[in-house]
């Protein structure tokens, strides 16, 4: 019997980049017994099939010049080697327990849809979708070329390679992708995972617009894992890839269903706006899956939600800090903020260590201060201004105008009444609790009539059709929770302390 692949609704995550496989005692015992036999047997078989593919994969482009490698393979290199590699690839996944692959719908030809968009992307095992799709070409990280066998298979596939940390590499990959997608069938179909990273499958995270820039028709492809245990998911936090492989190979078999949806042809508006095209395809696929389409992305190894060009870290570092302080017994946030703001304005060192933060806030243990610093930075130091501004924003202790005035005072170097692009980026990073890599876009919009002033930022956050959602929906001051009277008292107290 096929069991629908919905997660236990009692499992709640603050973002879709966490997945923990919950097992009963019986399931753990059964998995240990079966895994002791199946795991080593299946991994060895998969490795043997991979080794058999290695020389065949290398043979496809052997002896070709760089110019020939940049063109689609033809002749015997195509028809002689394609089928053996496809069959051996299927043998790899068969040995891992994927005995059947169910296919729904019809795959479009490359003339009908040069691009296949696959989601949700939940695991390294999702590459199994390449087999029923006939081994279309893919985009992969350039680092994967150094991996044994995997590098040979990427070469065989004539995959596009990109370094995520190299802007030139990303631009070159985008140009090559557009060239292939608009080659009128000269290149094979391309398959992408437009989410760009794995999630737990409870939502679709935001699609990257790169592959949609060519404006060609796309065929959405849905992945389903209709199993009693959701063993294949591998995300940023939670079950590791080794655990996912162990639990998957410890099952007698694992089901996978590949569903081809009708081809989506972009409108003229979508061709002109790749981000809109990507968003609409995401919404269509989410609707077919019965899950939400969201604005979550992974940015600098941190889960964030996108609001325009702003990145909203999830969970909010400031909210996590408030919880830590409350657990530590800190209840007078007015006094805490007053101490931090006074320290910032005294022009002492703005980078503060865990030991200094422990002393400044009067904490009794250093561990709490260390955790707070780690929420905002990778080391045990953080910018005290960032801590003060973000806590003031989420606590609701200041009205919007006072909050913006206070932030401007802390970040306006030279007290000139306006902000440079760097200062504006730092201020927005402080307000939201993390670096804002695209703040320059917002700065250009805001500074069209000169360097931004406090009033310009206030208008942006209260009247702009997109960014006016920031304060009530993300920062959520206390009024949003029905504590208007308490917030008013706290604001008065903080204002009094600021004037004394």
From TrEMBL:
It is found in: Membrane. One of its GO terms (molecular function) is lysophosphatidic acid acyltransferase activity. GO terms for cellular component: endoplasmic reticulum; membrane. Its main location: membrane. Residues 481-500 have a biased composition (Polar residues). InterPro entries: LPCAT1-like, Plipid/glycerol_acylTrfase. Residues 475-500 are annotated as: Disordered. It comes from the Eukaryota. The chain crosses the membrane at residues 32-56, 76-101. Residues 115-226 form the Phospholipid/glycerol acyltransferase domain. Keywords: Acyltransferase, Lipid biosynthesis, Lipid metabolism, Membrane, Phospholipid biosynthesis, Phospholipid metabolism, Transferase, Transmembrane, Transmembrane helix. Pathway: Lipid metabolism; Phospholipid metabolism. One of its GO terms (biological process) is phospholipid biosynthetic process. Belongs to the 1-acyl-sn-glycerol-3-phosphate acyltransferase family. This is Phospholipid/glycerol acyltransferase domain-containing protein.
């Amino acid at each position: 019997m096929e069991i629908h692949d919905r997660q236990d609704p009692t499992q709640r995550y603050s973002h879709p980049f966490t997945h923990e496989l919950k097992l009963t005692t019986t399931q753990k015992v059964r998995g240990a017994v079966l895994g002791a036999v199946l795991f080593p047997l299946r991994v060895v078989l998969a490795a043997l099939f991979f080794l058999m593919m290695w020389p065949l994969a290398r043979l496809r482009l052997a002896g070709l010049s760089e110019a020939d490698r940049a063109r689609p393979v033809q002749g015997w290199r195509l028809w002689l080697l394609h089928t053996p590699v496809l069959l051996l690839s299927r043998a790899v996944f068969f040995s891992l327990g994927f005995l059947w692959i169910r296919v729904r719908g019809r795959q479009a030809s490359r003339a009908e849809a040069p691009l296949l968009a696959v989601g949700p992307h939940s695991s390294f095992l999702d590459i199994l979708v390449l087999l029923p799709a006939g081994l279309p070409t893919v985009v992969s990280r350039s680092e994967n070329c150094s991996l044994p066998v995997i590098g040979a298979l990427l070469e065989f596939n004539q995959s596009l390679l990109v370094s995520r940390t190299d802007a030139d590499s990303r631009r070159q990959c985008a140009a090559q992708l557009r060239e292939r997608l608009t080659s009128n069938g000269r290149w094979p179909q391309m398959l992408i995972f437009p989410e760009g990273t794995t999630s737990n499958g409870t939502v679709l995270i935001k699609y990257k617009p790169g592959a949609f820039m060519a404006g060609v028709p796309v065929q959405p492809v849905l992945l389903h894992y209709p199993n009693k245990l959701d063993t294949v998911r591998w995300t940023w936090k939670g079950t590791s890839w080794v655990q996912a492989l162990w639990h998957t190979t410890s099952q007698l078999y694992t089901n996978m269903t590949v569903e081809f949806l009708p081809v989506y042809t972009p409108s003229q508006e979508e061709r002109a706006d790749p981000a809109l095209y990507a968003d609409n395809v995401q919404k269509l696929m989410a609707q077919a899956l019965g899950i939400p389409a969201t604005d979550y992305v992974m940015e600098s190894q941190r889960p964030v939600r996108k609001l325009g060009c702003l990145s909203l870290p999830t969970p909010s570092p400031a909210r996590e800090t408030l919880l830590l302080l409350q657990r530590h017994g800190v209840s007078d946030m007015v006094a805490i903020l007053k101490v931090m703001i006074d320290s910032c304005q005294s022009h002492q060192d703005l980078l503060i260590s865990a030991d200094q933060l422990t002393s400044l806030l009067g904490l009794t243990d250093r561990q709490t201060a260390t955790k707070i610093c780690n929420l905002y930075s990778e080391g045990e130091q953080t910018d005290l201004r960032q801590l003060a501004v973000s806590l003031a924003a989420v606590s609701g202790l200041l009205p919007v105008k006072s909050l913006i005035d206070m932030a401007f005072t802390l970040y306006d170097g030279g007290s000139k009444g306006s902000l440079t692009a760097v200062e504006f980026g730092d201020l927005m990073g402080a307000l939201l609790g993390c670096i804002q890599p695209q703040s320059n876009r917002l700065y250009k919009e805001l500074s069209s009539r000169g360097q931004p002033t406090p009033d310009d930022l206030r208008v942006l956050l209260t009247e702009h059709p997109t960014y006016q959602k920031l304060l009530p929906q993300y920062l959520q001051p206390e009024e949003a929770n029905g504590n208007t009277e308490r917030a008013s008292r706290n604001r008065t107290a903080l204002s009094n302390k600021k004037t004394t």
